[in-house]
Amino acid sequence: MVSGPASCTCTSVIPGSGSVREVAYLYWNKLLEEGLLPYRLLEHTADIGFEVTAGSCGKLFAEAMKAMTEWARPVCSEEASGRFIRVRSTDITALLVDFLNEVLACWQIYREAYQELTVIRMSETLFEAMLHGSKITGAADEIKAVTYHGAKVEQLPDGTWSATLLMDI
């Protein structure tokens, strides 16, 4: 099972402290500066962008899912949930985008948020995993979709994996 610092929490926004987007951006960058996150927010005029890094491609998918979950800040119940997911796509970048959009669909359909996953099978065009999380009653922010615009997945010369993604909010 892949796990990490992302958690299912909701942070309040103090009136007059800025928009939810500004507060989320400051919160994420503070955690990044403290070395607690393997990802960082990217500024974009209409969407929220993020970069994710991990030691393997499977962990990259898990960290991208956690980044998306952390940004949405779901309000979780104590009831645990798990869900099998299978996604096919044309290449590794499209596979990651399609996987994250499938996770978003599961959030909406089953009212669940996922913090961890267990990779069952993975190739350049297929991803199967068991998602682990909890039932939710809502979220601080809504993500409409993860977009293909500017999406990029690559293995770096040192063997680590990196992804750049945009979320339509």
Topology summary:
Layout: H1 20-33, E1 39-42, E2 47-54, H2 57-72, E3 74-88, H3 92-110, E4 112-122, E5 126-139, E6 145-155, E7 161-168
Antiparallel strand pairs: 1-2, 2-7, 3-5, 4-5, 6-7
Helix pairs in contact: 2-3
How does this model look, in words?
The chain has three helices and seven strands, in the order H-E-E-H-E-H-E-E-E-E. With 169 residues, the chain is α+β, with helices and mostly antiparallel strands. The protein has one domain: Archease domain (Archease, Possible Chaperone, Chain: A, domain 1, 3-Layer(bab) Sandwich). The strands form two sheets. It has a four-stranded antiparallel β-sheet with strand order 1-2-7-6. Strands 3-5-4 form a three-stranded antiparallel β-sheet. Strand 4 and strand 5 form a beta hairpin. The longest helix is centred in the middle third of the chain and has 19 residues. 34% of the residues are buried.
Which labels suit this protein?
169 residues; alpha+beta; Archease, Possible Chaperone, Chain: A, domain 1; four-stranded antiparallel sheet; three-stranded antiparallel sheet; disordered N terminus
Q: What's the level 1 CATH class?
A: Alpha Beta
- Summed up, the domain count is 1
Shape: globular
The SSE order reads: HEEHEHEEEE
Q: CATH homologous superfamily name?
A: Archease domain
Strand order of the largest sheet: 1-2-7-6
**Mean pLDDT reading:** 84
Number of helices: 3
| Number of strand elements | 7
Summarize this entry quickly:
This protein is of the alpha+beta class and 169 residues long. It has 3 helices and 7 strands.
